[in-house]
């Protein structure tokens, strides 16, 4: 597991190479405000080689947060992340490792008949009940998630992960009521509290695409205050003094800024609604952003008015620094499927992000 001593030691090794807010408090220690994402790419040996080289290079260059998921690239991303951690100069105690469970994972390659694969490998094997599946491919039932966590630890060849996300729980809203999904989350959190107690998980969170950045009336909306309340109830049921819900992940970039602009969550202490980013900040939840470069589109350029306010030598660096400027954001993930892009991405951290006043002015 990442430790306070390990992550601060990692930070100190880079001295003044980065801007003053590049490393930020995260979990028990600190993490780089630029993280490695491992979502995109084909499930091939060639892509594995590129990812392995890229993640290793990033860990050696000042990035100490790596994000993956069991379903990314048919479990290949998790396996490559584990290999990169072992190959890199960084010690395990210096690196924050996050993974996710929720989508039924293929193994190595996409099967010719995905439906039959799910039935044979998961339903018939007793790993998930057919009634727990949404869209035939997603479940957050405690036993299913626990089995996915076991498989993730095996893929990564690690004794534990620092952060385990329940992955896109809003997918379940296609099959069941919002109240039922909250109940499912509470049951999943209670299981994760037990796995925390066993030392398999340092903390847990919720990784979403739509749930926290859409208006209340949206079909995929989930309330952050209710999710926090369910986590607190789960901790109490598990007999845990301190709730293990520590982070959320959601998309955020210069053209997808709903997490900052859509006020759909009740403030923890005041009678008003706030955005997901503001709620997380007030509730002391770490925020990790995905889609920082809009899956590569923003590397070619960002809106001129915003671009002029940002520091960075390239459009990609300025897009990264926009995400790093948002309130409450601890780490902005950048997909790094090639070592050629690592140096450019990491160099974004040598520039300071926008100040709060300048960031707010973008939306005025």
TrEMBL record:
Superkingdom of source: Archaea
Gene Ontology CC: cytosol
Domain NADP-dependent oxidoreductase: 34-353
MF-aspect GO terms: oxidoreductase activity
InterPro entries reported in the protein's UniProt record: AKR, NAD(P)_OxRdtase_dom_sf, NADP_OxRdtase_dom
Pfam families linked: Aldo_ket_red
Protein name: Aldo/keto reductase
Organism: Halopelagius longus
Lineage, opening ranks: Archaea, Methanobacteriati, Methanobacteriota, Stenosarchaea group, Halobacteria
């Amino acid at each position: 597991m990442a430790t306070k001593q390990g992550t601060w030691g990692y930070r100190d090794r880079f001295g003044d190479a980065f801007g003053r807010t590049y490393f930020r408090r995260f979990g028990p220690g600190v993490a780089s405000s630029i993280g490695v994402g491992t979502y995109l790419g084909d499930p091939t040996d060639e892509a594995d080689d590129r990812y392995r080289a890229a993640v290793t290079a990033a860990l050696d260059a000042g990035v100490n947060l790596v994000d993956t998921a069991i379903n990314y690239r048919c479990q290949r991303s998790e396996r490559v992340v584990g290999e990169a951690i072992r190959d890199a100069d960084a010690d395990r105690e210096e690196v924050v490792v996050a993974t996710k469970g929720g989508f039924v994972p293929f193994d190595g390659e996409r099967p010719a008949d995905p439906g039959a694969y799910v039935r044979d490998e998961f339903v018939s094997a007793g790993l998930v009940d057919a009634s727990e599946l949404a869209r035939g491919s997603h479940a957050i039932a405690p036993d299913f998630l626990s089995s996915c966590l076991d498989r993730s630890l095996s893929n990564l060849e690690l004794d534990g992960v620092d952060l385990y996300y329940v992955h896109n729980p809003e997918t379940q809203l296609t099959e069941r009521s919002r109240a039922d999904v909250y109940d499912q989350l509470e049951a999943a959190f209670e299981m994760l509290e037990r796995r925390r107690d066993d030392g398999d998980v340092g903390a847990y969170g919720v990784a979403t695409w739509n749930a926290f950045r859409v208006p209340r009336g949206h079909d995929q909306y989930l309330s952050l205050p209710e999710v926090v309340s369910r986590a607190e109830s789960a901790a109490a049921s598990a007999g845990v003094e301190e709730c293990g819900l520590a982070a959320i992940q959601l998309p955020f970039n210069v053209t997808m800024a709903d997490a900052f602009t859509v006020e759909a969550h009740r403030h923890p202490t005041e009678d008003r609604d706030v955005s997901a980013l503001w709620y997380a900040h007030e509730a002391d939840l770490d925020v990790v952003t995905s889609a920082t470069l809009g899956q590569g589109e923003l590397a070619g350029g960002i809106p001129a008015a915003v671009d002029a306010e940002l520091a960075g030598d390239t459009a990609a660096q300025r897009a990264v620094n926009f995400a790093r400027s948002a309130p409450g954001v601890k780490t902005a993930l950048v997909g790094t499927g090639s070592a050629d892009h690592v140096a450019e991405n990491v160099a974004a951290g040598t520039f300071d992000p926008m100040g709060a006043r300048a960031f707010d002015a973008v939306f005025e």
